[in-house]
Structures are given as structure tokens and as C-alpha cells.
Amino acid sequence: MFQPGGQDGFMFQPNPPQSQTPMKTEAGIGSNNFPTTSDTTQDSLFNGLYANPASYGGDHVDHLLPGFPNWNLDTVQNDPLQSKADALLAFCFSNPDYRTSNAPAAENMRNCLTVENIKHFVAEFTNFQGHWPLIHMPTFNLLEANNGLVLAIICIGAVYSDKLNVPQVRQMMELVKTAVQSSSRVYALVNAAPSGQTNPIGQSASDVEEMQALIMIQLMFTWHGNTSHRAQARQEFATLVRIARQVNLLHVLPPGSPGYSTLHQPGSLREELDLSVWDWNAWVEQEKRARAMFMLFLSDAALVIYFNCPPQFDFHEIRLPLPADDAAWDAKTATDCADALGLRGPSAQEKNITGSRRPKQPDLRSALRSLFDPHFSFQPRATNVYSKFILIHALHVQLWKISRYASQGNSVPNFNGFLPSGPSTPLSQNDCVVQNGSSGTASTANSGCATPIDGTPIANNPQAQHAINVVHQAFIKWKLAWDIDMKLQYPPEASVFRRFGFSRDGVHFYFLGLALLQNHSRRPSDWQIPPDNRFQQVMEMLKRIKDPAARDQQQQRQDIGSVGDIDDTYGVRDLTLDMKLLFKPIDQQIDSPISGVQTGMI
Question: Do residues 104 and 171 touch, judged by C-beta distance below 8 A?
Fold first, then answer.
């Protein structure tokens, strides 16, 4: 399962990379590339999906759905997938007005929701899953999953498909959004509840799947839409935040809950865990909730960084451990997961090359306190690459907040909250940090923070200057941890393939942070730039830092990662966006190969 250098986060190897130029739309909304005859076979749909089909499931490879090992088509001879397709159509058009208000979009959706096209779009979705490992593929069952979530998966898969053009995909996502929001139990209950009131929802698997669907739709409207779609995403994000709070997504489930997980509880693991009391299913349910919350947290951070939206989450209120290692998340069995977590001894864990190899991950608050406190630094291998991606985005949010308050001539509120205080567990009791370690020694020559220009708000605000320096040192400590851990978790000699996934490539945001630190001194009012203008500005900055980031990673004998793959035209020339130019499809020639798909019974 955990081959050295292998990619954690995929269940199959998708299509060879498509052309990265935006798809032509001259054919119009009404044209598509669906087969015009009924003799399209399953084999033809999946040609090119595998470099070596025999290695992906043995004798029954033709009966497997890529990326979804619990779906064995040998078990669905009575075609329950057709029943699922019918259910999805009914879900989309539960309101008859949907069918008549936009007939071309309705016809397009009917064409998409055939058995063969569902399989095609679901297979393409894995390109996105590789960037954002939100769905627990080993236990996900398409036939039983929430219809809204399946539609969101299909919609994202359509982004990567050559069967639809970009305008058609946007029509699809608008229809799916309407259907999901109008049918979602959590969406309806939270919108009906007074602010601050807690609803008895959020603990069932269906509730979590509804949240996952809403999150995916939010992502599509942000990164695959036009100006109007992005404005909707920004405006409606507050509803998702309210849902997350009212379903208690910011905290682990308490004892007695179906998804209560010992390894997600606060504090370090002080003694060896008795495997007889460890429940893989409960672990998976809590990890699904945590990953949904961290996707919301990252969405919030992205709205801050790219669109100048004030943050709606404070890291102090999120009482969750950071995401588990990919090897544990992608494990197909309880035994494989226990091995990856180290519950069955160090020798069984050796295959977990790319992770932290910790049965319990540090919580978000403690990890950030470790970065802000000059008296502590991370132990080697304390965090995995996804956790580092989350942490670097949290630093960006703090930087934006300081700049905003300082430019307004205000003091920086709750700055002492960066550092250990109150009833929190002392950092000295945290096994992921070491005391008296580096206080922030730069790991690169270009890590200085610009001196504030006389007359600027920050130059006249000593508290803001101090806060900026603390955040700057946190960026440097983050980079030091990145450099140390990459040598351990992604050793250059371990594989000829490269690391794949946007969420596994936080180093570009370190260089973006340094650039923004310079800007905060020279252009302190950048936080006031209108959303789409700010978006273009940040995308230009990411484009400019590709070269220094690549040089730095080459010096470390590391690849440039998926952020370096962003198309140079994305968000710069045309503000009508194509998401696959941001989150590129996997390239089977250079990206890490995927372990074989296992079959299972529904």
C-alpha cells in the first residue's frame, strides 16, 4: 500500500494529461461530445485510464470503477446504477420549474446522468481528489452515498472531462447547487435556526456527506466560475460557516457519539493504545469530519488571501487535530490503517514513508503556537505535508489581519493569543515540539522582512511591527520544518516520480508570504483592493514566485509540486475561470503511480 515515493491519495491512475489550453466554447452550450450511438462499451470509456490494466484488479479489471474500490460491477448485474441514475435525475428535478426554466441545461443534465457517463465523470473526479483528499475512497459507496454528494462529484469530474465544454459545466454546477441547497437537511435546518442555536444534526454519515457536497460546490463557484459565481461563493460562505459551527464541526465528537475516536482526542498519546478498543470505522468518521472542517478553513483562508474577505474562522476556536497521514487515510482495511498509524509497531509502519508516522496528529492551535513561540520548534517529522499546507495558510490569515488593523491605525487585537496563555496544554508537554530549538533561523538567503517605510501606518505602530516580526519568524520556522521533513518524507532517491497534489505543495505559499510581507510595508492598503483585482494581483505574484520556488526546491533536490503547475493564464488574463488550469489533471508519465484498485462488495 505504501510504496516508497508512491502517491498517497489516489485509487487509480487517470487519463493522460489533456491539453491545458481552455476548451473552445464556440460550439455553444448545446453541443457536447457524448456518444451518439448506444454501442459504447465500458472498455472504451476506460481506455487510457490504466498504464497496465492487469495490475489494477486482476481478472476482473473490466468490472471495476477507478477510484472506488468498494464498487464491484460484478455485483450490480441488475443494474442498480441505473436506479441511482434515475434517483439523481429525480433529485435534480424535484421542482418541476427546474425543467422548464432552463430547458438546455436540463437536457444537458439528462445526457450527463446516464450509467456510462456517470462512470466516466466519477473516474475523472479523482484528478480533483488527488489535490484535495476530502472523500474517504476506501469506504465510499456510490450507490448508497447522498445524492447531492454524488452530483457534486460528477460535476467536478465534468471539469476534467472532454465530454462537456466549460459553459456546459457551469450550467451543470448551477443546477446542482440549486438542487443540493434545496434538498439539504443541514442547510434548511441551519437557515431556519436563530443565530447561535445548536441543532441536533451533524453526527450522521448523511449529514457529513451533505457538508462535503456543499463544500465542493463552494469550491467550484470560487475556482471555476465567472465574476458573478465568485461573488455568490463569497456571499454564501457565511452560511457554510454557520452550518459548521452549529453542527459542531470545529470540535471532535464527544464520548458516546457513533464517531467518537480515541486518536482524535486532545493531548498526546502517553501510552500504547490497546488495538482491541480502536475502532477503524469511528476513526474514519471523525477524520471525515475533521477534513471537511479543514477544507472550510482553507476556503476561508483562500477568500482572505485571494479576495480580501475578512476571515470568518479564528484558529483558536478550531479544536481539531491536523489531518492524518495519507497512508492512514488511504488505507483500504483496518489493518492497513493501524499499520500506517504505528499501532502495530514500527516495522509495520515502515511503508508509511510520506507521513508523520504519528498515531495522533498535533492539533491546529498547538501547532501554530509552536510556530509563534520563539522558545519551541517542531520535532523532525512532526507534521505531514497536508498539515503544513494548512499551517502556512493560517499564517497568511494572521498576516492579513495585522495589516488590516495596522493600516486603520488600530491596535492588533488578541495578539497575545498567538502565544501560550490561559488553560491550554503547555507546549512543553507536547511531544511534537522541542524546547530551546530554533527561534527562526532562515533556511534561505531571501527571507528578510522589509523595514517599514517611514510614515506608513505600520511604521507608526510598534505593536503592529512586533506582530509582523512574530509572523515573519513563524514563516521562517515553517520553512525550516518543511526542508527537514521533505528529506525524511519525500527522499529524492526514493522515487523517480514527483509529489502530486495542491494540498501537498505548501512551499510556494512560503514564498508568497515573503512577498506579501514586503508589500505590507510598501503598500499597506493592499487589503482594500476589490476582490477580483486582488485575485489577479495574487495570481500574478504566484506566477512570479514560480522561479525562486523552483530554484529553492532544486537546491533541496525536491520537485516543484502542483502549485508550480498552475497555468500562467489562470486568473490573470481571463476572469472566467477553468478550474483544471488551477488544479491540473494528474500526468501518468511523471506523477506518482497509484496502487492497485481493490475490489469489494457493496
Answer: yes
Please, which contacts does 286-290 make with residues 24 or more away whose CB atoms are closer than 8 Å?
286/252, 286/253, 286/259, 286/260, 286/261, 287/136, 287/261, 287/323, 287/324, 287/329, 288/136, 288/208, 288/212, 289/208, 289/249, 289/253, 289/259, 290/252, 290/264, 290/320, 290/321, 290/323
Condensed to tens digits (0 to 9), the pLDDT of residues 530-550 reads 999 999 999 999 999 999 999
**In a shared domain, residues 583 and 508:** no
The conformation of residue 84, written as its DSSP 8-state character, comes to: H
How far apart are alpha carbons 369 and 592 in whole angstroms? Answer: 34
Residue pLDDT, tens place only, 375-388: 999 999 999 999 99
> Does residue 328 lie in a domain region?
no
Q: Are residues 306 and 318 in the same domain?
A: no
Q: Are residues 257 and 379 in the same domain?
A: no
Q: Strand, helix or coil at 377?
A: strand
Residues 302 and 173 in one domain: yes
Domain co-membership, 7 together with 153: yes
d(CA 384, CA 355): 5
- At residue 11's C-alpha, the angle toward residues 207 and 362, to 5°, is 60
Give the Cα separation of 361 and 364 in Å (integer): 9
**Could you please report the per-residue DSSP string of 567-592?**
-TTBTTTBSS--GGGTSPPP-TTTBP
Dist CA 140 CA 134 (whole Å): 11
How far apart CA 46 and CA 62 sit, in angstroms, is 9
Between CA 218 and CA 212 the distance in angstroms is 10
Q: Closest by alpha carbon to 531, among 230, 224, 232, 225? A: 230
Q: What percent of the chain has pLDDT over 70?
A: 74
Assess whether 395 and 304 both reside in one domain: no
CA dist., res. 85 & res. 212, Å (int): 20
Return the SS3 of 335: helix
3-state secondary structure of 433: strand
Quote the domain boundaries for residue 29: 1-266+293-310+576-596
Residue 286 belongs to a domain: no
Q: Is residue 279 included in any domain, yes or no? A: no
Tell me the whole-structure pTM to 2 decimals: 0.84
